[in-house]
Amino acid sequence: MNSLIELVNKKLDEYVQIIYPEEIFKSMKYTLMLPGKRLRPVMCLEIVRMLGGDIEVALPTACAIEMLHVQSLIHDDLPCMDNDDFRRGKPSNHKVFGEANAVLAGDALLTFAPQLIIEKTKGKLPDEIILKLVHEYTKFAGAYALIAGQVVDIESECGKLVRSAEETLDFIHMNKTAALFRLPIRCGAIIAGKIDLVEELDEFAKKFGLAFQIYDDIMDEISTFEELGKTIGKDKNSGKLTYVSLYGLEEAKNKFGLLINDCYDIVNKYHSNVFKNILDKLRERILGV
Amino acid sequence: MNSLIELVNKKLDEYVQIIYPEEIFKSMKYTLMLPGKRLRPVMCLEIVRMLGGDIEVALPTACAIEMLHVQSLIHDDLPCMDNDDFRRGKPSNHKVFGEANAVLAGDALLTFAPQLIIEKTKGKLPDEIILKLVHEYTKFAGAYALIAGQVVDIESECGKLVRSAEETLDFIHMNKTAALFRLPIRCGAIIAGKIDLVEELDEFAKKFGLAFQIYDDIMDEISTFEELGKTIGKDKNSGKLTYVSLYGLEEAKNKFGLLINDCYDIVNKYHSNVFKNILDKLRERILGV
User: B124-169: per-residue pLDDT in tens?
Assistant: First the structure.
């Protein structure tokens, strides 16, 4: 697990070189290199390893997906969105580089990610497969997933609900949180040449994504700033729609428990220590076992 | 020329369907469908026609490039950037949909554009060529071109010049304005299967791009709001670095004249009425002949 995180950090640092005009590359790199769990790229690499693929070939795609994740954090933190001053324990991008640069750094990461997949994978996988990876990226990064989730999230905060609260909450997180796990897991299977396993693993990714969001909502309720490195209790204070606010803490824990138990199937089937490690940590933190 | 514009408008309208969550698709479509000259997609299609390619096959790419252009307009108009309330004679995106939606609509267009190229060109061109088109898109849309130009533009407005004023101005517009003409022209040659002509046509695109920016700077000096549909005299009033502010009106006209004359080579070589039409209009407006 730690060696995969180190590998991702090393590659992220290598892929973004600071050239003229330096400010934009510094801004991209600032949030990108803040210490993080690198869950998404690590899961992508682990899927590739599990299915007998080549981790080296998967690194550009894994890192590109982390760039997309960081892009969404930079734009979500903007004053016109969630207006968050801290991210991973440090001042958010726009607090350091200003709003204009934060918008542009997000834009730059959003388009650098597929560029990286193409340039660093070309010749190592067939063009058809690279095109498939970029297609997956564009499907999940845009208005049909990630951005749809963010838009409905913002609308729900303004009390504008087109669908029921339950449906709205699931829509937001299937498209926001889960999409960012579905993408690396689907890409992992594609890189490993196991196209026939994409849909089965996608089911795992959806369940894991929702479990992870419920984990996040519960942690926002019970943790401290020091533990999470971001503003805490904001959801509660703003009356935001979360799994805890909608179902209550106990029912949210139950939902989390059911989803996370299903996720262990992947550990049993593929004997993945990395996935066992990730699932164990989340379960212990929420359920104490 | 007009039939190409109509074709582009029809396809843009068709490609962006308004589904749930409607607000984001409405926001994307609002700025996209404001009446414009559609110069970039039209030039892409005309290159394809000139070189014997299939315009139908080129339409998704041509429209994707217009989406990138519109994305850059939406984000440039934001309060934290140029803070412009009008675009193409109408309220800018953030004035109608709010800042959060304007940021997200830009993000969504930026990633929908390559998705469109892949989904609508798949099977009509070899995967290798589609991958090349998407690669060109990512190279020009990001921190190595369009965004680099925008960052240096913003820095120069704050009086922060790392290079000389002349070099800075050329860097900004080679990366901002010219990049958005280089991309459709290069893609046009690629779609037509004339890879060997890409670099020659790229030289035309660079000259046209700079000429077009000088045209724009001069028009900002001599036009009215009614003519341009956007705030006028802003550059002058803000002391912005432009070809007119740096070289004076007469010298800017001279520079424009030299560049635009070179551009006529393409008209003579390929007998393109569309390019003749575009060049004639620009020249007449600035030089009166």
Answer: 999 999 999 999 999 999 999 999 999 999 999 888 888 999 999 9
User: Does the distance separating the beta carbons of B106 and A107 come in below 8 Å?
Assistant: yes
Q: Minimal CA–CA distance to A128: which of B179, B16, B237, B127? A: B127
Structural contact between residues A40 and A30, judged by C-beta atoms closer than 8 angstroms? no
pLDDT classification of A1: cutoffs 50, 70, 90: confident
Q: pLDDT digit string (tens) for B169-207? A: 999 999 999 999 999 999 999 999 999 999 999 999 999
H, E, C per residue of A146-163: HHHHHHHHHHHHCCCCCC
Report the distance separating Cα B77 and Cα A17, nearest Å.
28
Does the beta-carbon distance from B110 to A108 stay under 8 Å? no
SS3 B92: coil
Quickly list H helices, B142-197.
146-157, 165-175, 179-191
What is the pLDDT at residue A10? 98
Q: Which of A16, A151, A158, A171 to mutate to test the interface with B (most CBs of B within 10 A)?
A: A151
User: What pTM was computed for the model?
Assistant: 0.95
In Å, how far is A136's CA from the nearest CA of chain B?
9
- Which amino acid would we find at residue A198? V
Angle formed by the axes of helices A99-121 and B99-121, nearest 10°: 20
How far is the alpha carbon of B30 from chain A, nearest alpha carbon, in Å? 15
CA distance A222 to chain B (A): 29
Structure tokens at A9: 């950090």
Q: Dump pLDDT digits (tens) for A199-246.
A: 999 999 999 999 999 999 999 888 866 666 666 666 666 678 999 999
